[in-house]
Amino acid sequence: MIKALRGTKDILPDEIRLWQHIESIGRDIFYIYGYNEIKTPIIEEASLFTRSIGDATDIVQKEMYVFCDRGGRNIALRPEATASIVRSYIENSLAQSSRGAKLFYIGPMFRAERPQQGRQRQFYQIGLEAIGSDNPFIDAEVIAVSVRFLERLGIEKFHVKLNSLGCQKDKIRVIEKHKESLRPYVEKLCETCKARFDKNVLRIFDCKEVSCRGIVENVSVEKTLCDECTSHFEKVKAGLDAIGIQYTIDRKIVRGLDYYTRTVFEITQESLGAKDAICAGGRYNNLVKELGGKDTPAIGFAFGMERLVLALQGTSGIRPQLSGLDVFVAVTGEQLYGEAFKLTESLRKAGIASEIDYDAKSLKAQMRKAEKLGAKFVVILGEEELKQGKVAVKDMAKHEQKEVEITDLIAELR
Ligand code: HAM
Q1: DSSP character string of 141-189
Q2: Measured from the CB, is residue 111 less than 6 Å from ligand 1?
Q3: Is residue 285 scored above 90 in pLDDT?
Q4: How big is the chain by its Cα radius of gyration, in Å?
Q5: What are phi and psi of 155, to 5 degrees?
Q6: Distance, CA 93 to ligand 1 centroid (Å)?
Q7: Is the CB–ligand 1 distance for residue 82 below 6 Å?
Q8: Which ligand 1 atom is at minimum distance from the Cα of 113?
């Protein structure tokens, strides 16, 4: 038997309602904050990601699905969407669009990680990007959207962790400082982190090895930002304070992708543990330019859908069910299926969700099925009633049954 690939899974109808619920709340809130939806391709030139996410990152080194297509092109299944959105922003001159470049997206991403609870090889992100401004109010606004989204979903016990990596020059200094603080422990790091120490020391801070985590948690990290970046960060914090968004400063948040500058943040949530973020994001002021566009600052975030689902399942909040059926059409004899078929079609055409079982053995079996499907009404076709142009309608909640003229049926059901 062929099974779904490791790290991928089917989202079955029972769960999909929850997904739709999350997506619909997301769309609502993003529109309220002025974001418009964008869909970019799942496949891109692999170099888009190596250039933006960075050569020395786990994503590019170990996790990206890359293949050569029939034309000999090097293609990647997107591991994230920010680089794609920036490519699209440049390619389609979205800077000139009257709607500006506040964009959100929902879709699958691919990373060959070791699968576990909340970590998949194909996973979904729901995220947004605000391209065009370095104003700290935008940082506060973007973080506010992520928090309001969680609040609207009824997800509690989450925690916003905030940091600033500073500008490009600061980042170089941050890297040097981190190197100094980690130097005494190099021999104790895992083999990958030993190599990272020279190539990209920041990545040691998101190593998942227990031994490395222990070291990272104990080193102290000094303040290293320039005056301008310090002032920017202060304003982001003031903006968040002004609208009552709670956060803690965590100097060790460095993020697993290289494009970040200045503000970075992560949101953790109790049902996922402190290690895995439900949402993560930050500024990437150099990426548009690095990918061939004009010098344009930007900031964004992405939520992991599977992690939102886990958090919602662990919350006592709303739990949407598969929506119940309006009508189940039942017959008292097999010869009536022709009439029932036509009647069901007319109900469906009128927008009334209806179901019928052409293979049922008895009326009793049909009533059981109607109950199982959660039908609000059962419309029963009987030989004698049909001759008089009537059907029986049973209200399943009230356990009441009455006869209705077929010509009045739709109005009556409504
Ligand atoms: P990221 O931290 O790589 O950032 O991913 C964002 C979120 O996607 C994570 O916090 C997590 O919830 C979810 N996620 C990541 N990998 C997996 C996985 N293997 N399985 C399940 N969920 C996962 C980005 O992708 C950036 N593009 C975010 C961003 C947008 N920064 C600026 N704009």
Answers
A1: HHHHHHHHHHHHHT--SEEEEEEE--SHHHHHHHHHHHHHHHGGGGGGS
A2: yes
A3: yes
A4: 28
A5: -85, 125
A6: 26
A7: yes
A8: 19
H runs (alpha helix) in 200-294 = 210-218, 227-242, 287-290
Domains of the chain in start order, with CATH, are: 13-166+225-313 (3.30.930.10), 327-413 (3.40.50.800)
Q: Is the CB of 258 under 6 A from ligand 1?
A: no
Residue of 348, 396, 347 lying closest to 375 (CA atoms): 396
Question: What pLDDT score was predicted for residue 203?
Answer: 83
Mean pLDDT of 162-172: 91
| Phi and psi at residue 84, to the nearest 5° | -65, -40
Testing ligand 1's pocket by substitution, the residue of 19, 109, 267 carrying the most ligand atoms inside 8 A of its CB is: 109
Residue 149, ligand 1, Cβ within 6 A: no
Q: What is the mean pLDDT of residues 302-328?
A: 82
* Helix (H) or strand (E) segment spanning residue 123: strand 122-131
With CA atoms as reference, report the closest residue to 103 among 79, 80, 127, 125.
Answer: 127
Q: pLDDT digits over 76-125, tens only?
A: 999 999 999 999 999 999 988 766 699 999 999 999 999 998 999 999 99
Structure tokens at 262: 């200045």
Rounded to the nearest whole angstrom, what is the distance from the C-alpha of residue 410 to the centroid of ligand 1? 48
